[in-house]
Model the fold of this input.
Amino acid sequence: MQTPPLPEKIHPWRIAAENGVLNGTLALAALPRLAATLDDADGRVAIALTFGIDGQGFRFIQGVLCTEVALTCQRCLGPLRLALNVTVSLALARDEAEMNRLPDDYEPLLIPEGSGLAVVDLIEDELLLALPQIPRHDDVRECAAHSEVRPPEPEPDVERRQPFAALASLLTDSKRSH
Ligand SMILES: [Zn+2]
Done:
């Protein structure tokens, strides 16, 4: 399937006035703040956004972002692949006063009229908001399965080995001195 190229920058006020759309995909690796929170940044996010002006005259961005992210389950520390289907419902606001007038079903996007916005920033912010605070497998049985196959933690192992190494060298020394 051919994916249309995404623009790097958009002018939200202008696109909303033109009832424009933003469709395409972005590599997760292109979103550095998001990628830093993931176990790996393989994969892409599919973007399907519509811009327009609603019946009350508010400029909106609505649609959906779909991706799958690799996280670590905080219950079993096993790998967790989480599908994210993020519903976007933003309204543009020029300033805080306008932001406060927006209906509750919109999330405000504070941006001066005529300003450009990097597409990666818009998408990254929405995905970061959608990430669970404490990612966990839905089913505790999945956690149990991961706990069984989990290899031992390397760090305590290293610490445990060091005193023995020291002891071994002491023994060698004492043998040598006799
Ligand atoms: Zn788990």
Remarks:
- The chain has six helices and seven strands.
- The pocket of zinc ion is lined by residues 73, 75-76, 78, 136-137, 142-143, 146 (CB under 6 Å).
